[in-house]
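#struct-pred
JK: can someone run the complex with zinc ion? inputs below
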Amino acid sequence: MTEFIPEEKIKEIRERASILEVIADFVSLKKSGKNYLGLCPFHSERTPSFTVNEEKGIFHCFGCGAGGNIFNFLMRVNNFGFPEAVKELAKRYGITLPRRELSAAEKARRTLKERLFEVNDLAATYYQGTLISLKEGEEGRRYLAQRGISKEITETYRLGFAPASWDSLALFLQHKGVPLNLAQSLGLILPRQEGKGLAEKGSFYDRFRRRVIFPIFNVGGKVCGFGGRIIDESELNGSQPSPKYINSPESPVYNKGQNLYGLNVAIGAVREKGKALVVEGYMDLLSLYREGIRNVVASLGTALTPAQVSLLGRYTREAVVIFDADEGGQKATQRSLELFLQEGIAAQIASLPSGFDPDSFIRREKRAGFEQVLAKALPLMDFLLEQALARYPASTVEGKVRAVRELIPALKRLPDPLERNLYVERIASRLGIKEAEIRSQLRRKEAGAKEEETISPREHGPAHEKLLLQLMLFNSQVIPQVEEVVGKDGFADFRYQKLAREIWHFWKRKKEVDPQDFLNQVEDEELKDLVAELLLTGESLMDPDRILRDCLRKVKLSRLKQEMHQVDDEIRQRIQKGKEDSSGASGLKELLKRKQRLLGEQKKWLDEATNRLPA
Ligand SMILES: [Zn+2]
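RT: done, structure tokens with the ligand placed:
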């Protein structure tokens, strides 16, 4: 776990390995100009937009935005961590990797996040060991056996058991030399309160006690948090009732609603089937898995979050959401379904008979019964229409109005105009109203709701900001100058700003930026995608000095303009105030001076443009 691969080795692998050869195992590629094109393995498409550039050593999909270098490709397609991807390539190209432990200094340098993941991993190992082989795990073994959870499932999902004791995990971690403040920040243990007579037994106690433990993994297979379920239902309403499930609190490695439970295991099956099933709970997912249905993820909450839907969209363009009938009608769930439309995922909704969840249903009806339910799944828009009809009587005027209002946001999000038209027709006929009325509602909503439109993550920031980033990646000597001019106020585009900050940090450490090295060190998937895109599309930087000047000037001028607007506003307010009483005049002089200075600066930057003098 604490292995270390020297940078020279990574470089050697990179030089020896061919990104074309490696990707060709997964995608059939055709030459097209300088690049190779194929069907993207990360989203389903009919026209190839997945691009590989051998010379630059990168891939980028113009459809879904996925991108990176050869290591990133293997990480994504095989769900590897970086070391695994390096090892795989080393093996393939016959390069031997040295084995050695980290030095103390290297250990200290590891980021906090890595250490937190390690602590979580250690805890998962502890819980699993307890479940599998300790006497204290007996209750957990019995519970899971009763629910038909096999040893294979236990291992695949690293299920575990937290014993009934108050501090067995705290003691275990302490024994392993884990700083307890780290375990505390992960929410694994909690500080004891003073004066409860327990202080002498240690200052922390375990969060999870007498519960079956479900580690929650990120896509890369690292443990980011835990869920724990009681094994004795009577605890639900005893004298001191405990909740059925408790989960890890938010931590630097765990954000609620950012992960999909089981995605790390399901990726292969999701790709193979071309779709994912979405259920709610741990046990729903495990029961389906037991019956051989493997392309399943769990939301761990009734309503899917935007982050979850967008995460899913990286792996599939089709999803079937399995609903307990009792929850299907809730507003929050319904809103979350509309996210699929926004993400361009074709979603269907399968409803279970009232009183069942996927776990209890498949337990009784087995796989065959479950597949019948799947076969009856409704396309999302039809499902929403049925829900609206069930909720509002189409026989009354008010019912019709409310049903249409409820369906408008979803209709608006349908990306295909033909599909939207067909639904407009269907809704009109079901509700017994004119199509034109729905269409006018659609238009009105569009006009009034501009500000609630969210910017899609693949939309681009200003072109000059993009160029600046490309310059920073291709000619790292410009970095200090960009940092000086753009500075902390930064780029207008949030994603660009994030990337610029990463590049600055990287440059400060290494004094140069090799885009490939950089890609190996970036953790954020979104940033990797962006870097690959910038590298691939950054062909024509013919006159870098000139481009640098132009771009910096644009950034600067747009910022100056903004600042001047602000000053103008303030001046106007002061003058207004000055008319009412005399206090407003006091700051006015100051403001006018500032305005003068801004004008001077603006002139300077404008002059530079005409004279083309170096900045
Ligand atoms: Zn793609």
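RT: quick notes.
Residues 211 and 231 are 6 Å apart (CA to CA).
Confidence is low (pLDDT under 50) at residues 448-458.
JK: thanks, will look after standup
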